[in-house]
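User:
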Amino acid sequence: MRAVSQRGESNNDGTSGRTVHVLHLAANQGDEVLVRSALRRSRHAEFVVSSTLCLDEAMAQALSGTADVILVDCALAGHDGSDVLATLLPVCGVAVVGYQHDEHTDAGLLETGLEDVVLHRDLASAWLGRVLFHAVARHGLHSELEASEQRLRQELDAAKRTRELEQRLVLADRLASVGLLAAGVAHEINNPLTYVQLNLSWLLDRINALEGQIEPALVDEMRATMTENQEGMDHIREVVKDLSSFARAGGDKIVELDLADIVRSACNLVRNELRHRAELVLDLEPCPLIVGERSRLIQLTVNLLVNAAHAVDDGDKRESRVTVRSGQTDDGVGLVVEDSGCGIPPENLARIFEPFFTTRSQGRGTGLGLSLCAETARRHQGSLTVTSRLGQGSRFTLSLPLETGLVVSTPSGPQRPITPERSLRVLVVDDEQHVGTALQRAMTPSHQVLVTTDGGEALRQLAQDAAFDAILCDVMMPVVDGPRFYAALSQEHPDLVQRVVFLTGEAFTPRARAFLSAVPNRVIKKPVRIDTVVDALARAAGTSEDAGW
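Assistant: Predicted structure:
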C-alpha cells in the first residue's frame, strides 16, 4: 500500500472507454460532490459513482458485487478507519482505496490491505481517477494471480496423487510378483523337502531297528546324525512356511494366533538381515491367543525389524542391539521393537506413518512399510506408536486388544490321530517321482501303495482296478492336475471322491486356490510327516461305507 498525492493530470494513457463502478463511503456530502466532480473530468475511464454516508449500507452494496472499487474516508464520524476497513475488506472482494485528511499515514491503515491511500485534497483532482483505475487493474491482476496459483496448486496436487497412485500400482504389481515368485519357490522347495524328510524318517526307523545288532556307540552316533539332519530340514520347512505366509499379504485365513509365534516367524525371515548388524534380543512372555491375520502380522513385524536393522545399519555390531518384547498388557497384548540406532528427527515423527514418506536414499525404500504396519494395526482394532531420540534409537509399540473384531475363517478343534486298524491300499498321484517313491517306502510294508505320476495315468489305473481305500493326489501337475483329476473321478468313480486327500507344495494359481477352498476333502501341505499322511488317509478311508472297516 502507498500514499498518493498528485497535483497534475495525465489523460493520454489509452485507458479511456472502460466503465468503472465506484462505491464511495463518505463522511459528508461535500466529499461526495468533490469525488463526483473529479471523476467526471477523468479520462482514464468512465466512472459511475454510488455514494453513501452509512457503513451498513456500504456493506450491503459491497456484498451485492456491483462495485469495481470502493473509496473510503478513513476518518468516518464515530468509526475508527482501520476498524472500518478491517470489516469491509474481507467481504467486498474488490479494490479499496482510502483517503485521509493529513499527510501522516496511520500505521493501522497499512495493516488492513488497502490498495492505495490518497490525501483528501486530491479528491478534487483528476489524479483521483488514475489512482482508482490502477487500483482496479492491480486488484484484478492480483486476483488472476491468486486464481492461477490456486489452479497450479490443484494441478500439482493432482499430479502428486497421480504419481502416488502410479507408485502404488507399481508396488502392488511388485508385491504380486513377489507373492507369485515366493509361491513358486515354496512349491519347488517343498517337493524335495518332502521326500528328503520322509527318507530321513525311514532311515531313522531302520537305524533304530539295528539296535542290538551292531555296536551301541555306532547306533547312537547314526541316530544323532539323523536327528541333526531332521532338525535342519525342520528349519528349512519353517522358513518356507513363513515365506509363503509373508508373500500372501492378506490372502491368509483369519486364525487364532500367538504373538510370540509371529515374532519367531518374522525373525526367521530377517535373521540374516540382522545378524551382521546388531545383536537380536528376544523377550517373549506368554500371552493370550488373539484372532488375526497371520500373514499381515508377520509382515508388520518383518517391517519393524528391517527398519531397526537399517537404523543401526553399519555401526559396530558389538554396540548395536535390536530388542523385541511381546506379552500381555493391561488392555490386551503388545509387541515392542526397539533399536539402539540413529533415531528419528523430531520433525519426521509426525509423518512417519504417512504413505510414501521416507528418509531413505533412492532405491532403499518406498515409504509404504510403516503406513502398511499402521493399517494392519488398525485392521486388528489396535494401534502402532513410535518414540525416538536422536542418537539413542527408536521404539515402536504395537498394541492389540484381546477382541480384534475379526472372526476365525474355519474354526476347527484338534483331531485325535487315527491309527488304521488294518492295512490300507493307497493310490498316490504325484508328478514328482521321488515324492511317490519316498511315500511308498515309508508306508511299506504296513500298507500297499501304488504310485502314478500323472492324473491321466491314475484314471487309467482306476479304470482297470478301482479297489483303493484312499487316494493321495498332488494338486499342481503339468498335464492332468488335481482339479481335473477330481472332476473326472466325480464322473467315472463317484464312490471314490470322498476318499481323496490332496497333497500340495503350494497352490500358487488362482484356479488351484479356488479349487482347494471349494472342495470338502482334506488338504495337507508339503513337506509332511508320514504319520500326518497315514492319519489323513485313514480318515478318508473311514468316510466310505464300503471301505471295509
